[in-house]
Amino acid sequence: MLRYIAEQMDTIGVAYAFGEWGDEIQYPYFVGEIPSPEEIIAEDGSEETTMLLTGFLRGGSYLDLERVKEAVKTHFDPIYGKRGETADGGAIAVFYAGAFYVPTGEAGLKKIQINLTIKRWKGAI
Q1: Alpha-carbon torsion (100, 94, 79, 62), positive or negative
Q2: Strands, E assignment, 19-69
Q3: Tens digit of pLDDT for each residue in 2-49?
Q4: Is 86 helix (H, G, I), strand (E, B) or coil?
Q5: Longest distance between any two alpha carbons in the chain, whole Å
Q6: Is pTM beyond 0.85 here?
Q7: Which end of the chain, N or C, is more open, meaning fewer C-beta atoms within 10 Å of its C-beta?
């Protein structure tokens, strides 16, 4: 699942890391986290979880973050999602689930949180 998200973020040109940013800082950059464990939502063992993408920007405008938000929203369509296969042969669908700006209290630093809903199941798409 994490590899799939990283590949998709690379596809749309978003600087992304899971957990924490460890590379040289390039703005804007996004860090992904999964705040709660995956929940089994059906008898077939399918799972659903939320991923938080937190974006940081220094020295730009909120429009720069809006462009990334719109790229993520388009790529992970809120209704149809983006579907693919996981490394273990399962299926995955990722959906845009909203975004909001987060106050930082630090001059010049802008922050956005984008929520993605991730659904996984065994078997083909």
Answers
A1: positive
A2: 29-33, 39-40, 47-58
A3: 899 999 999 999 999 999 999 899 999 999 999 876 666 666 668 889
A4: coil
A5: 49
A6: yes
A7: C
Number of CB atoms found within 10 A of residue 8's CB:
19
Q: How many CB atoms lie within 10 A of CB 12?
A: 14
75-92 b/e with 16+ CB inside 10 Å = b? bbeeeebbeeeeeeebbb
Strands 16-18 vs 29-33: parallel, antiparallel or unpaired:
parallel
Distances (CA, A) of 109 to 48, 56, 112: 32, 7, 10
d(CA 116, CA 99): 9
Give mean pLDDT, residues 99-103. 95
